[in-house]
Write a structure and sequence with these properties.
The protein has helices at 11-18, 23-34, 48-58, 75-90, 121-130, 135-142, 148-156, 159-166, 180-196, 204-219, 229-240, 246-263, 268-274, 294-307, 320-331, 345-361, 379-394, 409-415, 430-439, 445-454, and strands spanning 40-46, 69-70, 95-101, 105-106, 170-173, 226-228, 275-280, 309-313, 334-339, 367-371, 398-403, 422-424. It is of the alpha/beta class.
């Protein structure tokens, strides 16, 4: 009896699996590709270690870990930054994004002159992409081994251009971080793209494998290591296109329409009433009279600058929402917001998931306000919040949260966030009341004292 031939597995999925922990880099590149506009190009600058990893993976050879590190002074990092500026200079009509892929870990520069404090400069790069003083990083780059052309380019940029058109358009994907949430985001995005083109969710896994392997193959090329929207559309069409005759097509379309109608959650009203699309934060109206609470607002902004996240907690009526808006106003830019007040854990989970998908598609957005996160932190709520945080980190977005309770310790642990992201708002002080009354044209300090004594201010200020 002949020995049966072992069935071949899905070679593309095996190639991706062979990358092991270093699938992170290609997931990041894939998400960046899916988010491109029609006029944008994503260039892949690939370190030699990742070229070898990609070649091994395409040959189903397991990629092994590395102890190598890269810093802002590493030759391949310098070359990638120079390459970005060269591409921008030669193609001013194009919108270019660049991702540097390497299996090496981010290391700390030896000399304090080449870093800010004790933090590796490549990590500071991502943080400053969101918010913070850009001058120290600009000085480090101007004193580095970058080409004179690149340095002239950096000098020519305003602070807004330096952040938006330079820092936020270059990403260094290093090491082997956790990819759980990246994988969720990739599959959710692909499902949405396929369904918009008449496909189904069941086609997402195969399509994702094709996209990831396409990027692996691109990363091993000597030239033309870039992708655009047109090449993505080709893969999406291949995933959804099946040659059938007209009668079969009509019948299948009817079945697909029914399946999609059944699968779409009936939460359109909830989303439209609770989620506000990005708009300039200075256009959001504030109460006519507010207490500026400068020290507290500075604490919130400091957390945003250090961690990209700020958690504002306090009882109802102490002014959490207005404090968040004042902090956002200091940062400027376009902000989206989602109001979770009074929702059940299941509703919050669904709305956080929808918010993650929507902000991933936005291009002109600086931050997100998650307002009144007051439901019980059940595991699925924590998971959806961590996914939202992952999207914000990947897109260099700031995240403000208002809540009546501290952030759960397990959430902080998994997200690798310090407890000092929290700022607690107490009841208004007599000085706060005086400031509010003065803004309303009420003179005399005695009125503040009477108001403070007669009314439980925290319960009557209506989020001011």
């Amino acid at each position: 009896m002949n020995k049966p031939i072992a069935p071949k597995g899905n070679e593309k999925r095996e190639a991706v699996a062979s990358l092991g922990g270093y699938v992170y880099q290609v997931y990041q590149a894939a998400l960046a590709w899916l988010e491109l506009d029609e006029s944008e190009f994503l260039f892949l600058e690939v370190a030699e270690d990742f070229v070898k990893a990609a070649q091994n993976a395409l040959n189903a050879v397991q990629v092994k870990g590395t102890s190598n590190v890269v810093t802002i002074n590493s030759d391949d990092i310098i070359a990638s930054i120079d390459s970005f500026v060269e591409l921008r200079t030669r193609n001013p009509q194009l919108t270019i994004r660049l991702r540097h892929l390497t299996t090496s870990q981010i290391g700390k520069e030896k000399s304090s002159k080449h870093r800010i404090g004790d933090t590796p400069t490549l990590e500071v790069w991502r943080s400053i992409s969101r918010t913070g003083d850009m001058s120290p990083l600009r000085d480090i780059l101007l004193a580095s081994k970058l080409s004179q052309q690149t340095k002239k380019f950096i000098v020519s940029l305003s602070d807004v251009e330096f952040r938006e058109d330079f820092l936020r358009r270059i990403h260094f994907d290093c090491g082997a971080p956790e990819v759980k949430f990246l994988k969720q985001q990739l599959h959710a995005t692909i499902i949405g793209l396929l369904q918009a083109r008449g496909g189904t969710a069941s086609q997402a896994s195969e399509c994702a494998s094709n996209i990831l392997v396409h990027l692996l193959e691109k990363s091993t090329q000597q030239t033309d290591r870039f992708v655009d929207r047109a090449s993505l559309e080709h893969l999406l069409e291949a995933a959804t296109h099946v040659p059938v005759n007209r009668a079969q097509l009509d019948a299948q379309n009817e079945l697909i329409a029914k399946a999609l109608a059944a699968s779409i959650p009936k939460s359109t009203d909830l989303v439209s009433s609770r989620l506000a699309r990005p708009h300039p934060v200075d256009e959001v109206p504030l109460p006519a009279a507010i207490a500026q609470r400068t020290a507290l607002i500075s604490s919130i902004v400091s957390s945003l600058e250090e961690c990209g996240v700020s958690w504002i907690l306090g009882a109802a009526g102490v002014g959490k929402t207005v404090a968040a808006r004042l902090a956002a106003l200091r940062e400027g830019g376009n902000w989206a917001s989602v109001n979770l007040r009074g929702l059940s854990p299941d509703q919050v989970s669904d709305l956080l998931s929808t918010t993650s998908n929507l902000i991933a598609e936005e291009h002109d957005i600086h931050g997100l306000l998650v307002d009144d996160l007051e439901c019980a932190f059940e595991p699925h709520v924590v998971d959806k919040f961590l996914n939202l945080l992952s999207v914000c980190n990947r897109r260099d977005l700031l995240l403000l949260v208002t809540a009546p309770r501290p952030a759960p310790s397990d959430l902080l642990f998994v997200a690798d966030l310090p407890a000092n992201i929290e700022t607690t708002l107490e009841d208004f002080t007599e000085e706060d009341v005086q400031e509010i009354l003065t803004s309303l044209g009420v003179g005399g300090s005695h009125w503040a004292k009477y108001t403070f004594i007669w009314f439980p201010v925290g319960g009557t200020h209506n989020s001011r």
